[in-house]
Amino acid sequence: MLFGGAAAAVALLIPWLPRPASEQADRIDFVFWFVTAICIAIFALVAAVIVYSLIHFRAAPDDDTDGPPTHGHTGLEIWWTAIPAALVTAISIVSAVVLAKNEHLPNASAASGRRDPLAPLVVDVTGQQFAWLFKYPGFGNATSSTLRLPVHVPVQLRLGALDVIHSFWVPEFGQKQDAVPGLLTKLVITPKRLGTFPVICTELCGLGHAVMRSQATVMTRAKFAAWANGQGSAANPGNAAPGGVSGKKLFIDNGCNGCHTFKPAGASGDVGPDLDKLRQLARGAGQPLEQFIRESIVDPGAYVESGYPNAMPGTYATLPKEQLDALVEFLGGSGK
Ligand code: CUA
Question: Is 303 helix (H, G, I), strand (E, B) or coil?
């Protein structure tokens, strides 16, 4: 009982898990406590039997005799097989039900009887070394470097990766899901409270793995709709000139800020060279500034600044030309 009490105190008094912020996390929490309660009960029982045996069957100091021969105990064996089997079966059933519920994308419009303009919300999540990009196909393919979600609306995340395997995780949302190159994986989230939570990459994906973080902001429906509609029209301003692409937004959306320092973008990464010193870097490489920037983006291995790892992924070679131009202009122009 003493051991059981100590184990229960450790389990209950220390806040091991973050406060759930999604319906899915609530269900996972339930499974966690269901299993923990069973474990505490079994641990207390086993510890009690051990302590009782230590005291009650202790051999006297001068007792060298063997114990009496025993031949098992059928009744006891049936119980200690049947009870764990029942508990393990119960855990399996509870887990299977929770998994099925968490993977189900509820049809919000069917429940309310009218069409919900926001549901089901789909967000395309792309992982790349070392950043997350979130795209909203329902809102003119608006992109964002942070995940924004309306509260109480089921959202389906469709995950992919450009280079290596990453894994998407918001601890407060519960489930993790891998982002794998060439594979479409999915995750359903129904946020249930407002707030800003960390987005973490939880699959070792290279040098910048530790800085591959973003934020998930759960906002009211009205705020989300205003933001998403504004973004959607900004992303597709009637086939506007490429000059409308913001270099700063590209810099952040593509995760450059994860690894590089660049004051005009408010970036302070230190995996790669400090881009506030681009002019010196270009001089060191013996190249004109603009050409140096362009080459460093599309072919990062061509010249590697000494003292830094050759760690920048080659995926930026696939940037559309107008985005590349805007990025080169932003870096070359602001880095004065
Ligand atoms: Cu991406 Cu770790």
Answer: coil
Q: Which atom of ligand 1 sits closest to the CA of residue 205?
A: 2
How is residue 16 annotated by DSSP? -
- Find out whether the beta carbon of 208 lies less than 6 Å from any atom of ligand 1: no
d(CA 306, CA 33): 52
- What number does the ligand 1 atom closest to the CA of 212 have? 1
What is the tens place of the pLDDT at every residue in 19-32? 999 999 999 999 99
CB-ligand 1 contact for 147 (6 Å cutoff)? no
Per residue in 255-304, pLDDT tens?
A: 788 788 888 888 888 888 888 888 888 888 888 888 888 888 888 888 88
Residues 290, 332: Cα–Cα separation, whole Å: 6
Q: Give the Cα separation of 150 and 104 in Å (integer).
A: 18
* Alpha carbon distance 275, 300 (integer Å): 14
pTM over 0.90: no
CA of 126 to the centre of ligand 1 (A): 11
Neighbours of 237 (CB within 10 A): 10
Q: Is 199 in the pocket of ligand 1 (CB under 6 A)?
A: no
Q: Using CA atoms of 15, 18, 24, 26 in order, give the dihedral in degrees to the nearest 10.
A: 40
Closest Cα to atom 1, ligand 1: which residue? Answer: 166
Helices 289-298 and 278-285: angle between axes, nearest 10 degrees = 90
213 CA → ligand 1 middle, Å: 9
Tokens of 199: 């987005």
Contacts of 49 (CB under 8 A, 6+ apart): none
Residue 328 to residue 312: CA distance in whole angstroms: 16
C-alpha span between 95 and 158 (Å, rounded): 23
